[in-house]
Amino acid sequence: MCELKKYKTSNTQIDSCMRNLIRLLKQFGVNTLACCCGHGKYKMSIIIKDDDGVIFDLMSGVIIKRKRRFYERDEEGYYFIPDNFRLEKNEQKYQNQYKIGGKK
Asked: How far is CA 24 from CA 41, 60, 89, 97, in A?
């Protein structure tokens, strides 16, 4: 995880802590469209497009129906994938409801 930086353009930068991983994925032929380490606020995400043209987050497995603009920016300037955020909220609700991973 690296520090949040204010880039002049949001579509051309790779978080410094993810550069080696993205390079490795590229070496294996993985078509990476976007990525973000989450900067300690959100979960890491790597948006890829598979051979069938399906776009999804490699880290969560969530299929993304958009072809661009995968991220939204919150009020503090952090980028997140709304699809993943909804998934996290549902997981949290489920865990709270059934007391998974916490004290009973």
From this structure: 25, 19, 31, 39
| Tokens of residue 7, six digits | 């880039």
CA–CA distance, 55 with 50 (Å, rounded to integer): 7
The answer on pLDDT for 24 being more than 90 is yes
Instruction: Name the residue with tokens 């469209």.
Output: 33
Q: How many domains does the chain have?
A: 1
The parent domain of residue 90 ranges over: 16-98
Domain assignment of residue 104, yes or no: no
Those residues whose C-beta lies under 8 Å from the C-beta of residue 83, and which sit 6 or more positions away, are: 57, 62, 63, 64
Amino acid, res. 78: Y
pTM value?
Answer: 0.70
**Shortest CA distance to 42 belongs to which of 81, 69, 5?**
81
